[in-house]
Amino acid sequence: MHIKSESTDRLFEAILGLDNLDDCYDFFEDLCTIKEIKDMSQRLDAAKMLIEGTSYLSIESEIGISTATIGRVSKCVNYGTGGYKKAIERQKNDNK
Rounded to whole angstroms, what are the CA distances from 88 to 6, 26, 33, 48? Predict the structure, then answer.
C-alpha cells in the first residue's frame, strides 16, 4: 500500500499549517481517538529511546508498550525512511 496520495497530501499540509501546540491538540483530538494519539506518542518515545541505545525491556517497562511494537519501531528506525530520526533530531535542536 502506498501512502502518497492527494488525500494524504491534504492531511500533511493541514498538519504543517498548524501554528502551535494548542492547535495540534485541537486538530489531533478531532482527527484521532485518544488511544491513537497515545499510541503514536509512545512509538515516538520508543524511537527516541532506541536511538539512545535503550534496551527493549527498559522501553517496555518505562513506556508500557509491547516488545512487538518496539520491534516494529526499531525496524523503522534502522531500515525506514529516516522520519523518526529527522523528527527527533529537530526536537533536540529546537530544545537547545
Answer: 26, 22, 23, 7
% helix, strand, coil for the chain, step of 5? 75, 0, 25
Residue with cell 511494537: 69
pTM of the model: 0.90
Identify the pLDDT of residue 2. Answer: 81
Higher-pLDDT residue of 96, 41: 41
Nearest to 66 by CA among 75, 57, 77: 57
Contact by Cβ (8 Å): 69, 59? no
pLDDT over 80 at 1, yes or no: no
